[in-house]
Amino acid sequence: MPDTDSTSDPPVKPRKRRRLRVAWSVFFGVLTVALCVLWVRSYWRQDDLAFITPNSMAVEIESSCGYLMGFVVHDSSGLTVPKTYRNSKALPSKPTSAHQQRFGWNVGASVTRLGFPDWFLSAIFAALAALPWLSHLPFRFSLRTMLIATTLIAVALGLLTWSLSK
Fold it and tell me: pTM for the full model?
């Protein structure tokens, strides 16, 4: 007669969920570390990656001086660039035009630009790495804690709006 005691084996679903949480955290943790390395490297090297999509859009990502920029050229049919392009060059000891360390975007008729500091994406990836483990924390807040959190969020949004308006 088979053993019907199921107390010796833990349930399968919590084990799978834990493995998925660990895999999620490792993936975004590795992305965070890789972006931090790119961030440090960007102060003495400028890295460019460009490619043309099948629908003839050119996409370029540039990392320089602690700043990430992305460009999308909507119609690249007139461009004479290879399908993919990767470049890394040393920055001068005194950069001629340092990027401003703030968020920015520009949507034009033919080009869309997006730029932000490297620390921003690093913080997002680090938060995504920690996200699966937050379900085990008790989310009971006092009114004081909620007011402090709301004030901090308001200050952060105010600083973001102020930096974009300059």
Answer: 0.62
- Residue 104's SS3 state is strand
Closest CA to 111 of 69, 49, 48: 69
SS3 state of residue 95: coil
- The domain locations on the chain are 12-139
Strand duo 67-73 + 58-64: pairing: antiparallel
User: Helix or strand or coil: residue 119?
Assistant: helix
Place of tokens 């920015």: 104
Phi and psi, residue 99, nearest 5°: -70, 145
Residues 6 or more apart from 115 whose CB is under 8 A from it? 67, 68, 69, 70, 99, 103, 104, 105
Q: Which of 26-30, 52-56, 143-147 has the lowest mean pLDDT?
A: 52-56
Mean pLDDT lowest among 9-13, 94-98, 158-162 = 94-98
Paired sense of beta strands 104-107 and 111-117, if any: antiparallel
